[in-house]
UniProtKB/TrEMBL annotation, chains A, B:
SUPFAM superfamilies: Homeodomain-like, Tetracyclin repressor-like, C-terminal domain. Residues 14-74 form the HTH tetR-type domain. It comes from Actinomycetospora aeridis. InterPro entries: DNA-bd_HTH_TetR-type_CS (IPR023772), Homeodomain-like_sf (IPR009057), HTH-type_TetR-like_transc_reg (IPR050109), HTH_TetR (IPR001647), KstR2_TetR_C (IPR041490), Tet_transcr_reg_TetR-rel_C_sf (IPR036271). The keyword DNA-binding applies. Residues 37-56 bind DNA. This is TetR family transcriptional regulator. The keyword Zinc-finger does not apply. Keywords: DNA-binding, Transcription, Transcription regulation. Pfam families: TetR_C_24, TetR_N.
DNA sequence: CCTCGAATCTGTTTCTCGTTAGATTCTAAC
DNA sequence: GTTAGAATCTAACGAGAAACAGATTCGAGG
């Protein structure tokens, strides 16, 4: 249930900072940002409550850091897998796999990012990253529509929301990524690989 | 942004109870169950904080009542629209329309029900209603698969989660129900009506 | 008009949580 | 070994919220 940890930290403090972030992501995923108490987070990170303030200026900042960590890690995975080569259908498949992998590997962070309460009141850096993530997806969808891989009627943005919504539901439910991907492709009647 | 109100209440107290429920649903949808304060709920319902306790034994009970109201209203709509007549494709279409209508009409209640934090720790009555709702959908999906309307590969339960996830994402984003339904049918390449 | 119960209000109590400040310990460089 | 800074702990404060207990008002029936 913990998230992933990229970027090797250097000092001892960096490791603690990561432990706090992981604990906060788990706590927020379970109880929401308001319901997650610093006491519980500190306990999970094996720390005293006050010590959190050496690493984060406030609870608000901690929550924001968790959000940014989640979306930026997702974006990183999308960049790695859905590179602009190959047919639209291939790139769409790669994008689906990347998103599902991100959900599986980042579990708690992903859950936090996807919580509906964060649709509004996003911190500044988070909004930009999220917009960028959605923009990539819109491109993938539009290309697939132009290609005939996906039905051309609906707006690309609409299709993107539907698709990501479907992937999120399966991902948060803990479904196996590969299995879910196959199901999606079958339903959309994409040509087999 | 308020929810719907079915079932005409009799006395004055019933109306107040409904006002509290609506206010609670809105507040919970915005700030999560932990972040929603009785003070804010009471203010929105034009009441003093303490007066809520005449209608609900505790904050926990109030939250549970909002949950049950949301899921039972959704189930009611599904019952009305997706009756067991017609072809599997027709019933599937009806189900999609019912779900989207429920999301649009119940907005705050639906948002509360769909919040990921409620996946666990559900109140007793809520679990049963939710199970029933999913069971209906599994039937619709299985019939559509047997019919060839939907791809037969993936498990019905998997398909159900994907489909409902997609509908929820569009519904909570405030998309027009009819428009969303058309997009879904086009993507799944369902035969036109 | 009076009465009684339902409904609401006011004030109080208790508890949790975020935040802060100062003391304390750990770690590495000199 | 000493020292300086990083990292953590301890203890408290203050705000806000849930919960509770009477006191008060409202509204229909006799």
């Amino acid at each position: 249930m913990t998230g992933a940890s990229t970027e090797v930290g250097r000092g001892k403090g960096d490791l603690t900072r990561r432990r706090i972030l992981d604990a906060a992501a788990a706590e927020i995923a379970r109880h929401g940002p308001a319901g997650a108490s610093l006491g519980a987070i500190a306990a999970a990170a094996e720390l005293q409550t006050g010590s959190i303030y050496f690493h984060f200026a406030s609870k608000q900042r901690l929550v924001e850091a968790v959000l940014e960590e989640g979306i930026s890690a997702s974006l990183r995975r999308l960049d790695e897998m859905a590179v602009p080569t190959g047919t639209p259908a291939q790139r769409l498949r790669a994008g689906v796999h990347a998103h599902l992998r991100a959900l599986a590997e980042l579990s708690d962070y992903a859950a936090v990012v996807l919580a509906p309460q964060f649709a509004a009141r996003q911190p500044p850096g988070f909004r930009a990253l999220r917009r960028e993530y959605l923009r990539r997806w819109t491109e993938l969808i539009a290309d697939a529509q132009a290609d005939g891989t996906l039905a051309a009627g609906p707006e690309p943005g609409e299709v993107r929301d539907l698709l990501i919504g479907a992937l999120n539901a399966a991902g948060l439910a803990g479904q196996d990524p590969a299995r879910t991907a196959d199901a999606v492709f079958a339903l959309l009647r994409l040509p087999p690989c």
